[in-house]
Predict the 3D structure of the following.
Amino acid sequence: MDTVLRQPAEKRWSTELAALKMDSQSPRPTGWQMSPKAVVTYLMGGKAPDGTVISPKYIGDRRLIETAVATLATDRALLLLGVPGTAKSWVSEHLTAAITGDSTLLIQCTAGTDENQIRYGWNYAKLLADGPSRAALVPTPLFRAMETGRLCRLEELTRMGSDVQDTLITVLSEKLLPIPELNEAVYAERGFNVIATANNRDKGVNELSSALKRRFNVVVLPLPDDMKREVEIVVQRVGEMATGLDLPAPKNVPEEVARVVTIFRELRNGCTEDRKITLKTPTGSLSTAEAIAVMVGGLSQAAWFQDGALDAEALGANLVGAIVKDPVQDRLALSEYLETVLKNRRDYSAYYHSMTSLV
Ligand SMILES: Nc1ncnc2c1ncn2[C@@H]1O[C@H](COP(=O)(O)OP(=O)(O)O)[C@@H](O)[C@H]1O
Ligand SMILES: [Mg+2]
């Protein structure tokens, strides 16, 4: 049995990727392991030339993915922008897995990220013993991506300080990384590019210097605009995650997903689906990703404590936890929603009771 908790996309979907790679007819950019069309098929689902079924990874607008893939075939880098939970990291992982077969060249940007984590660091024992040399240099994922002509992922780009962000300018415009200590430079191999993600809930891209912004093509990943599509995303991902966690998925999953997603959408949009009642919106983002987490939490509770019966009891606590992020404001928003909306809906009465007892 596989004991690794989570395999990177290129391992988990290796059969699909292998099938798409086999097609040697279609032209591909240098350094890519498959054609841009095949990359889009891998993300959106379809069939490989040999008939292998490709499952959809991203559910949404195909053109967004086409723009993203096309960008990566140029000398511009790709910036995926959106509120939390709109599959930015997920898409970035799958794009790198499909294009270069390696999604692990990843830098998580934080307020504490410094230049050494972007460019290169030093092995101080070696540095002190022999002085600066290539052997004493510790390459970062960005460095290795340049050397090997692969893609580097920068997660939450706007979180790191703008002075550190600006070290990327030379890399993205001249495709080289100077190493002044050795009086040399790394020249990026063909195939190198960068996929960054940024969250427009926290700092926003306005914080990016205009010099850097100009080097990125921005693709905005939206929250799903219709209910049907959002339910589809949640049902599919919950199914996959339940299998991965060895949790049984009872028959009523789609029904409960529809209820959870309705609650999330109404609170997020600040009005009921029929647009008749205006609501207070909680502070959290209540994204699709959080709806997935609520369902998986509910399934786990159902499996371990309720003999597999997934009901409002198991989901209520997870729902309250996801909605109430601020103990005062969000609690108020939720109790108002419970009293003005859910109380009057017959098919939600179990949810009304289980959630009311918790807020
Ligand atoms: N449109 C979508 N299609 C497929 N999966 C989605 C979609 N939106 C959200 N998800 C799911 O949400 C989860 C979280 O997404 P993630 O990439 O971590 O969000 P972000 O990086 O935007 O905050 C992923 O597991 C992904 O499967
Ligand atoms: Mg992310």
About this structure: The longest helix spans residues 227-244.
